[in-house]
Amino acid sequence: MFLARVIGDVVSTIKHESLVGRKLLVIERIGLDGSGLGDTLIAVDAVHAGVGDTVLVMDEGSSAALITGSEDPPIRTVIAGVIDRIDIEEGM
Questions:
Q1: Across the chain, where does the E strand assignment appear?
Q2: What is the pLDDT of residues 19-71, one digit of tens each?
Q3: CB 16 within 8 A of CB 72
């Protein structure tokens, strides 16, 4: 899992049947301080995230299968949570 920020939407009129009705979002991986790391991906939204949200992302096939309910979905990157805040204890 990793943290990311949603930076855009993907509009697709034709897509794989397991993705019909699912929103695709462009995400940028971020560090714990919120700074962008430059890596961008397209992820399936499972939690109604939107542009500007900080999100928790799973990036492996079995999680994508679980969330989409498809045995072999054509995806591996799924937004699994919207992050409200990150608290890190000093000295850790």
A1: 2-10, 24-30, 36-45, 54-59, 77-82
A2: 888 899 999 999 999 999 999 999 999 999 999 999 999 988 777 777 777 77
A3: no
Structure token pair of residue 87: 């608290």
- Element housing 62 (H / E): helix 61-68
Cβ(43)–Cβ(73) below 8 Å:
no
> What structural domains and CATH numbers belong to the chain?
2-82 (2.40.50.220)
CA–CA distances in Å: residue 74 to residues 10, 16, 91 = 16, 8, 42
Exposure string (b/e) for 47-73, b if CB count within 10 Å is 16 or more?
eebeeebbbbbbbeeebbbebbeeeeb
Single-letter code of the amino acid located at 37: L
Using DSSP bridges, classify how beta strands 54-59 and 36-45 pair: parallel, antiparallel or unpaired.
Answer: unpaired
What's the whole-model pTM score? 0.88
